[in-house]
Amino acid sequence: MKEIRYFIEYCLVRVALFLFDILPYRLACKVGVGASTLYWWIDRKRQKVAIGNILKSGIETDPKKARSIAKKAVHNMAILVVESLRSTDFLDGDKLFDHITLKIEPDAMAALEDPEKGLIIASGHFGNWEVAGHYLSRFKPVAGITRKMNNPRVEKLVKRRKSRYRFRPIPKHDSNTLRFLEVLEEKEILALLFDQHAGAYGLMVPFFGHPAATFKTAAMLHLVTRTPLCFASCKRIGPMQFEIKTSNLIQVKRSGKKEEDLRNILSQLNNDLENVIREDPTQYLWAHRRWRDGE
Amino acid sequence: MSELSKEETIIGQLRGILEESSVNDLDWDTFSSATSIEEIGLDSLTILDLLYDIEETIGISLEAKQVLKITTVGEIVTLLIAEGA
Q1: φ/ψ (deg, to 5) at A104
Q2: In whole angstroms, what is the distance from residue A222 CA to residue A228 CA?
Q3: What is the dihedral of CA A69, A71, A74, A75, to 10 degrees?
Q4: Between chains, do A177 and B56 touch, taking CB under 8 Å as contact?
Q5: What is the pLDDT along chain A (295 residues), one digit of tens a residue?
Q6: Rg (CA), chain B
Q7: Do A258 and B56 count as a contact with CB atoms less than 8 A apart?
Q8: Which chain A residues touch B65 with a CB distance below 8 Å?
Q9: Residue B60: closest CA among chain A residues belongs to which residue?
Q10: How many whole angstroms from its chain centre is CA A8?
Q11: Which residue of A has its CA nearest to B23?
């Protein structure tokens, strides 16, 4: 039964990919946005979560406007999928530079360009994080956690399609500290998305003023290995146009009080993420339940 | 300090560190060099916490990769003594 379902899903994805390939980019985006609108109407639960999160963040107080942001955020996720599937059109070779604007702080750039240094990049589900990973792998190999799709046929198909340059995915089920340490030992870039509900593994740190269980891994790796750490984002600024921005390197001197040090780093990361979200709230994945406890 | 008393001191320090952070229901009076890492409930994430605490309490910075391979408290002690604790 499962095999039949997987096969049907695979066929549907193949049809979608075929359409995305033959359609001009803007039209492919329109098809993606149309499909995401359908999803928006079907998945009422996620719709409610997204609107609730926007209101809770304080970015918008009017439920109608919050709803409009949430809907646009779903559309932007569809555009992200189209961009990722069409990434070979614009990310390969020197074409890339026509599509990327850089705002990288000098100390972060120095760490990127230093072959003797690893770098931990912490980011959130904002804009197109896949494009950022792809671009940064031009400096040195990038490793990041990726979630395997449930359908192995679709997983294989999508994997073949995505242009990743020197981006090395670490499957979520295999994302233990040893793998991360190997990446840093090789002086590569470890890219971690820290903005999902961390449960027992997290530390409660304010996100838009409300406590959120925040993943400690990036901060702990920085404190223990002394590998430089910064926040990065990749905002969509036009069709196939992106702005990659980093913070300065986060410099937290160890105080001897672990929780205090962690809180300090994670507050900076949450703060940096809040700032980019405020620039364009429609590019954030609001449908995730990050605030689950603590209040 | 003799090797034996040095070992006992380090085990005492490790007990102090681990007792605070362990989530497992362990009888800490039986804590010794033979205690396994699995018993204490350390996983690959909490091992980073341990490294931070060791550096702050004992003053030795251990390579994280070395610590990830150990299986007993005794092996951490050996590693710390080798690093000059």
Answers
A1: -100, 125
A2: 6
A3: -100
A4: no
A5: 788 888 888 898 888 888 888 899 899 999 999 999 999 999 999 999 999 999 999 999 999 999 999 999 999 999 998 888 777 777 777 778 889 999 999 999 999 999 999 999 999 999 999 888 888 988 999 998 877 778 888 888 877 766 566 777 777 666 677 788 889 989 999 999 999 999 888 999 999 999 999 999 999 999 999 999 999 999 999 988 999 999 999 988 889 899 999 999 999 999 999 999 999 999 999 999 999 865 4
A6: 12
A7: yes
A8: 178, 181-182, 185
A9: A224
A10: 29
A11: A200
Q: Which two tokens stand for residue A196?
A: 């999902």
Establish, for the pair of chains A and B, how many residue pairs have beta carbons separated by less than 8 Å.
41
**pTM higher than 0.90:** no
Strand partners for A235: A243
Q: Do A258 and B47 touch (CB under 8 A)?
A: no
Measure Cα distances from B33 to A249, A280, B6, B76 in Å.
Answer: 40, 55, 13, 9
Among candidate residues A234, A275, A229, the one with its CA nearest the CA of residue A136 = A234
Among candidates B44, B47, B56 on the partner chain, residue whose Cβ is nearest the Cβ of A256: B56
ipTM of the complex: 0.83
Token pair in block for residue A227: 């590998």
